[in-house]
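Researcher: Next entry in the queue.
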Amino acid sequence: MQWFILADALWAFCMACNVYLALFRQYNISQLRKLEWKYCIACYGLPFIPAFVYLFIETKARGKIYGSAIQWCWVRTEWGFLRIAVVFAPAWALIVLSAAIYIFAGGKILKSRRRLRSLANDSLVSSSMDQNQIDVPRATNAETANEAHPALVKGASSSDPHCDLELEMTSNPRPECPSDPFHTDSRTAMSSSILPPGHSQSASKAAAKDRRASFEANSIMWTYSKFSMLFLLALLVTWDAIALLDTRRRVRRPSGALAKEAARDAGIKPEFRVGGEVLRGKPGIVGMSGWMEELGHSTADVAALNIIHVAGTKGKGSTCAYIEALLLAHGAATGWPRSVGMYTSPHLLVPQERVRVSGTAIDERGFAKYFFEVWERLFSGDAAVESQKGERPRYLQLCVLVALHAFIREGVGAVVLETHHGGEYDATNFVDKPVVTVVTPLGRDHVKQLGPGMKDIAWHKAGIFKSGAVAIAAAQEEGLEDVLRARAEERGVLGGDVRIVTGKEEPGLQDVKPDVQKGNCAVAVVAVRAFLERMRGEVLSEETMRRGVEGFKWPGRFQVVERNEGKERWWCDGAHNEMSIGVAGRWFVDGLEEGGRARVLVFSQISDSRDTEAVFRCLAESLKGSGVQLVIFTTYDPDQTFSASMSLDQQVATTTLPSLDVYERVWNELHPDAEVRFEPQLSEALKAAKGVGEAKAGVDVLVTGSLHLVAGTLWWLGEGVGGAR
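Model: Structure for this entry, 725 residues:
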């Protein structure tokens, strides 16, 4: 991980050096290729030295050097001076040097291109005069080719290295390099004027051919330079955007009671209690409306996004993805909506996955563009002074702001908006005029924030119900639907009640697998039908529904990845609560095939807001009779952002063996014959699981317990939304 951070900057500098050598030192392709091995040693060798040495350094005062990668590099804050000396300072020095080379080279190339175009225009005039047998002086081929480059034109050979941008054509060697690139040798002009007409026309055609070759060479050089500069730009914007976003993460959950001022801002009483406990910290909803106004977006702008707001415990992401797919299918069939935005949380690999437009995660360039538009408005000095108490959005609040800002700028026709883990006080709930609100199945999750009872959780989730909006909910446990109905009546939803979806309303969804996804899909279909009827008076046809279901894709949930011609089968599901993890276990068992294949479970869950023992017990119960022979407990970094420059092999373990004893005890109670192993590094755990199948007909591996765990697995397998390695 640490190794490749500086390597990125070094490679950007090497690409800039290639541009300099080609343009100003007349290096040809062969000469540039001879430098490749030197570049590899410099780019990979230099940063490898400190990255490797850091593995063995540890002091009592500062501890180990490596830690979380929240601030660009994996050097812990206790070793901050190493960040400056070995990462930040050299990286930015290389970036500044690269930018200087590109600025100078860009000016030179643009100047050369203008000269070549001028010569090309002159050649047209000259050719016209030749046809009328009018002899005029003209530039030689060598002079025309002066602005091209030998490394990029077939048949070219290097001339005087001090001749700026000179190209020596083999058919018309140029003996000198005049100070004026448009200098015309008098002897050449004279000889041209006394040649026979036929010979003159032939020479003119040859000159035009060489000029075209020269111009094409110059264009190729310009293209290479542009790609080099784009590489540097991508490096800068990706580093900066993700690094700045990560600075807004909260180090720990608040423990203090809700302040009176914050309670007033949130429109609640300071002593308000949920589940018998006083609210802690400042709710995510506080400040969101004001920040949107600072960005220049009014309440009407947000309402014009035509939002479908989704909350719940299980199946939120899948339901959102089904809604998105159905809306896109309807848009393809009818012309509206032409585009659909979707915000979901959390992301699997990279933050930009949270922001999707028409089924595709926004790319790095787009994410950086919209992020910096938000950042500059909200985090400039003036904005901080003028804003209420100088408060600025935290990580999740900032993610929502960037997403909605992007959707407004993109002009999407509809938006699917997923809450984080609450509802009433969630950062997304400042939206006061959604078209449809949806609550998916509820379960015991984030109990410390929303509980302790299920009715408390239901009260929070139903907080997204709004006056005048359609309210829809999946079928719930006994007693919870009464809470949802009471909240719907309290909020004045359209029709005065919430519509409960049992799954039987849509007989055309019987082929959707697994069964839990059938329920999520049914809720999505009902929500889309209500949305289209209210917005346009349109209906969702059976054919459009079928196409939408076929277009559904949601990585990390009920995802099966096959490798080695099916010998390895990785069953990946980010289930992380009691309700969902039991479903994941049954999904795995139902999909197993006979044939002597090994069966392995890879599990990890690092959370202070869940009863992890209860979650794992549900999983162990669901896997009875599965024939799992090996269970591997591992760890992950919950703050990890994946990129091509990181390696799971160096990921720092965040959980120690003693804390996993409870998992081992639970598993041995229910599966006494299975082997239990602990691998602190996720990569080692996955390699071990893969190795079990080598001596058998294959291996089925269930990876579950956390979306972060599944994300690392998909990255290791080369899968995922945010781009694979």
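Model: Residues 2-112+228-246 form one domain.
Researcher: Noted, moving on.
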